[in-house]
C-alpha cells in the first residue's frame, strides 16, 4: 500500500483545519474569554468530568533547535479526571492563535472568523478540583501535527481524561502556526522556514523525541513541576501523535523506555523505528483512507517500519478519513459548513472511531482491559479496515 508524506499533502490541500537546570513556571498563556460561538466539540464518552491545567516548561540545558539563542520552551495542556461542577469552562484557543491558524488553512477562514473559532465550546474546566482516587492514573502524551497547535487534539484529550487518564498535550516552541507563550508572545513556525526548503522534517520528530523525556522528568520525577503530578502513575505511560506527532511517538519510545505503548495517527515515519525495534512494546498505526491519497506523494515508510515493530501491533485504515480526520478539524468544519472532500467521512464519525480505537488501545496496554474491537473487523465499525495485524 502507498502512503504519502501526509503532513505535506495536508498542507497542500489547505484542509488541515517540559530536569536539572530547567526552569518551570505555572500556566499563563494569554487567555481568551469563553463566549458563545455555536461551535462545540463532542463530549467525552467516559464517566469522569475533565479538568484542564496549563504548564510552561523551560529546559535551560538545551537550546531551541529553531532559534539557537533561546532556551527550549514547551507549553502543555494537562487534562485530568476532575470533580463535576468545579472550575470554569476552558477556552479552546486565544483569538491570536485562531487567527494564525486560519491564515495557514486555505479557504477555511472564509467560513469562520478567528473570534468564533477561539470561542469553540470545550468540555474541560480550568481550576477544576482533581477527582479523589485510591489509585493514580496512567499518563498519555499527545503530540500534534507539524504547524498544528496542541488544541487540535482537544477532543481526543478530553475523551481520554474522561476515561481515567492524565493527558499531556504538548506545544513545542516555533513548531505551530502560532502559539501564545507566557508574556503574550505569539511564537510562529520558525521550524517551517528551515525544514520545508530541504525536506528535513526528521528534525522535528527527532527534536520532539528529545523534548518528551524532559516532559516526563518534570511530570513524574522527584522535582515534579505540575501541582497535580501526584495524580500520575509513572509506571504506565503512553504516547500518541497525529502526523509528525505520530513519528515522534515511536521516536520517543526508541529513546525512553518509560513510554510503554504508542500510536501513530496518519504520520510518515520521518524518524525511522530502530532496526532493533522498540523492546517488544505495543504500537498502533491508524491511517486515513489510502484511496484519498494524491498519487504524486509516495511514501513507503509504513511498509519499511512495520517489520521493525517487534511487539503487539496493528495497522488499521479508516475508509473516508483524510489526513486531518483524527483531529478536531472535521468536526468544526462540518459545523461551519466547510466542504472537505479530502476527508469525506463526517467529523462526528471520524472522532467516534479515533476516540474508540485509541482509547481501547491504551486501556488494553496500560490497564490490561480487554479490547475486542482491536482483535479484528467488526460490523459496528465498517469503515475500519485491518490492513495488517
Descriptive notes:
- The chain is α/β, with parallel strands linked by helices.
- It contains 10 helices and 14 strands.
- Strands 1, 2, 3, 4, 5, 6, 7, 10, 11, 12, 13 and 14 form a 12-stranded mixed β-sheet that branches. The chain has a two-stranded antiparallel ribbon with strand order 8-9.
- The chain starts with 5 loop residues before the first helix and ends with a strand.
- This is Alpha/beta hydrolase.
- One of its GO terms (molecular function) is hydrolase activity.
- Residues 1-29 form the signal peptide.
- Keywords: Hydrolase, Lipid degradation, Lipid metabolism, Signal.
Short note summarizing the structure:
With 389 residues, this protein is of the alpha/beta class. The chain has helices at 6-13, 95-103, 114-118, 154-162, 190-198, 202-220, 244-255, 301-305, 329-336, 347-367, and strands at 23-26, 49-63, 71-82, 88-89, 124-126, 137-143, 166-172, 179-181, 185-187, 232-242, 261-265, 283-287, 313-318, 384-388.
Roughly what percent helix?
25-40%
Q: Report Rg.
A: 19 Å
Please tally the β strands and state the result. 14
The shape, in one word, is: globular
Unreliable sequence segments? 1-34
Determine the structural class based on helices, strands and strand pairing: alpha/beta
Sheet bearing the most strands, described? 12 strands, mixed
User: What is the N-to-C order of secondary-structure elements (H for helix, E for strand)?
Assistant: HEEEEHHEEHEEEHHEHEEHEHHE
Distance between the ends:
14 Å
Number of helices: 10
Amino acid at each position: 500500500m502507498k502512503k504519502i508524506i501526509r503532513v505535506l499533502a495536508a498542507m497542500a490541500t489547505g484542509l488541515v483545519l517540559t530536569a536539572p537546570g530547567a526552569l518551570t513556571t505555572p500556566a499563563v498563556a494569554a487567555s481568551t474569554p469563553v463566549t458563545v460561538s455555536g461551535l462545540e466539540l463532542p463530549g467525552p464518552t467516559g464517566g469522569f468530568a475533565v479538568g484542564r491545567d496549563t504548564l510552561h516548561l523551560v529546559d535551560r540545558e538545551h537550546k531551541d533547535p529553531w532559534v539557537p539563542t533561546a532556551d527550549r520552551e514547551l507549553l502543555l495542556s494537562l487534562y485530568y479526571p476532575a470533580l463535576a461542577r468545579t472550575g470554569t469552562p476552558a477556552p479552546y484557543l486565544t483569538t491570536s492563535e485562531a487567527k494564525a491558524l486560519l491564515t495557514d488553512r486555505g479557504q477555511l477562514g472564509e467560513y469562520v472568523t478567528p473570534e468564533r473559532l477561539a470561542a469553540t465550546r470545550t468540555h474541560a474546566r480550568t481550576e477544576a478540583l482533581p477527582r479523589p482516587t485510591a489509585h493514580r492514573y496512567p499518563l498519555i502524551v499527545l503530540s500534534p501535527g507539524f504547524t498544528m497547535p496542541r488544541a487540535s487534539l482537544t477532543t481526543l484529550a478530553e475523551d481520554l481524561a474522561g476515561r481515567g487518564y492524565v493527558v499531556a498535550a504538548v506545544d513545542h516552541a516555533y513548531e505551530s502556526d502560532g502559539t501564545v507563550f507566557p508574556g503574550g508572545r505569539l511564537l510562529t513556525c520558525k521550524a517551517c522556514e528551515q525544514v520545508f526548503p530541504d525536506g528535513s522534517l526528521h528534525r522535528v520528530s527527532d527534536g520532539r523525541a528529545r523534548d518528551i523525556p524532559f516532559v516526563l522528568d518534570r511530570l513524574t520525577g522527584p522535582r515534579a513541576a505540575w501541582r497535580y503530578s501526584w495524580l500520575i502513575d509513572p509506571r504506565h505511560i503512553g504516547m500518541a501523535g497525529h502526523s509528525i506527532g505520530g513519528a515522534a511517538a515511536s521516536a520517543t519510545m526508541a529513546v525512553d523506555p518509560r513510554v510503554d505503548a504508542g500510536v501513530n495517527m496518519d504520520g510518515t515515519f520521518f524518524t525511522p523505528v530502530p532496526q532493533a525495534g522498540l523492546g517488544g512494546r505495543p504500537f498502533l498505526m491508524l491511517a486515513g483512507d489510502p484511496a484519498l491519497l494524491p498519487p504524486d506523494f509516495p511514501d513507503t515508510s509504513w511498509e519499511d517500519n512495520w517489520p521493525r515493530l517487534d511487539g503487539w501491533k496493528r495497522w488499521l485504515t479508516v475508509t473516508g478519513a483524510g489526513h486531518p480526520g483524527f483531529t478536531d478539524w472535521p468536526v468544526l468544519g462540518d459545523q461551519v459548513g466547510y466542504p472537505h472532500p479530502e476527508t469525506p467521512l463526517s467529523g462526528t464519525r471520524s472522532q467516534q472511531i479515533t476516540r474508540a480505537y485509541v482509547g481501547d488501545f491504551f486501556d488494553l496496554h496500560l490497564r490490561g482491559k480487554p479490547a475486542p474491537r482491536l482483535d479484528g473487523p467488526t460490523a459496528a465499525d465498517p469503515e475500519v479496515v485491518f490492513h495488517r495485524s
